[in-house]
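lol ok so funny story. i was supposed to be doing the assay writeup but got distracted and ended up predicting the structure for this chain instead. priorities right. anyway since i did it might as well share w the group, maybe its usefull for someone
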Amino acid sequence: MDPDSGAKPPEGGASAVPRGEGKSSRRRKAKRNGKRRDAAPVTNSEAVDSAASAGRPNGQEPNPSARKRKRRRAKSAGAQQPVQGANAAPAAQQIPVRAEGGQQPHSAKSSSSRNRRKKNRGGRGLQGRPLTPAKAAPGVAKAPAPAGSGQVSSKDARGRAGAESLGAELRGEKFSYVNDLYAALDLGTNNCRLLIAQPTRPGQFRVVDAFSRIVRLGEGLGTSRRLSQDAMDRAVEALRICATKLANRPIRRMRLIATEACRAAENGEEFLARVIAETGLELEIIDRETEARLAVSGCSSLVGREARSVVLFDIGGGSSEIAVIRIDDSRSSRLANHITHWTSLPVGVVTLSERHGGRDVTPEVFNAMVTEVEGMLADFDCPPLAAFRRQGAEDFHLIGTSGTVTTLAGVHLDLPRYDRRKVDGLWLSDAEVSAMQAKLLSWDFAGRAANPCIGPDRADLVLAGCAILEAIRRRWPSQRMRVADRGLREGLLTDMMADDGVWRRVRPRRQAGSPGAGGQDEAGARR
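and the output, tada:
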């Protein structure tokens, strides 16, 4: 008998009572209030059957013993839930409401609220401080999103990054800088290159996306002093791809630069105005001193702790930057602070090959190119480095960052295809460099173009680069040279990250057995 009504309970138990008949729980009433008034009542048994039928073939009855086990589990779970009536809908179908007295039942809504709070916390700084909005560098504008690109606003990007950080934390992973994406673009005389990276361990970063294309923007610049129409068209097409890549990612900060071709061309400013109109990218023309400092910043991790003096050179398409670095006992975290002398030669692989010819290079033509560069270096007033070297110690070396030195390294290793991981950071002795230059000089244009580390795009430029390298080696003799497949883009990224202090926020502990200082991870892109 029912103690309240005195009537005999219906057969089949309380769960068999149709919806609306007998005693009804407040939870079910609240649920009914959230639906349409004209909705037909559904019994709890029908709801259970409909949910179960989704996972079994048509016409197949559920196992009675399995249903009993489910009921027992539901009862045991109901003993731990604050509000769980006998006629409550299944957990997957419940709509949580606020109970009497203002108490919020334990439900999916409260759980989602907590998840939202965690998600919002993930969008803040690593110490709980809100991230400052991205500040564009002077003369830099973020590319507008093309139609249909799906660009995400900075607010949504921070929320999504916070969710990714929370998920990674729950998986036991360490992603301390998911909110920070930096971009660097370098439009040179020969190449257009882009890097999008994320800071990792102090002084290092992980490349998220990369792009490189030979555009030969400075083609014909040495004779006409103007950028040709075809060269500008090639550059704008490459910059459109870069603009799309930038628009599709939440970039915290970016810097976009142009170098010698736009510096020297009479119509350089006109070309940059066209770039803004057609791509939305506002490029900054940097001076030669800034270019030299950025090259040093990009290669700072390749300078050994034992080095007391270094000559770093960047052989470009229209100019070549050389920096003399002297390191004392108080070594700065920024290697560019140790530059004592620098120069920028108004000659590169494109301009030198156009003056002397790059396809058919005889030993006489090669020596003429070397002599021209030596004359330019003679005007560079730099004291000798012998006073900074210890007797018998290998504390001086050269660092070369250009397609010329990376090509020499690839030929030296006899690679079937160029591999940045094997080239970047490679040491070459003075004898090995001389042997590789002699080998390249012995090949004709077709032989150079057939080599997988040179290719047809560089076959007419590589010997001009070797001539510039030879002049540098004669001015600063060294027993060894280190190859760097990195340059201005890496310097831009390193400087932006250091200025923002991303490596000072959190210094993650090194895991046992993890490698020490590692290089940046990026797809190789050479001049």
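The two ends are 92 Å apart (CA to CA). The domain at 134-295+490-506 is CATH 3.30.420.40 (Nucleotidyltransferase; domain 5).
back to the writeup now i swear
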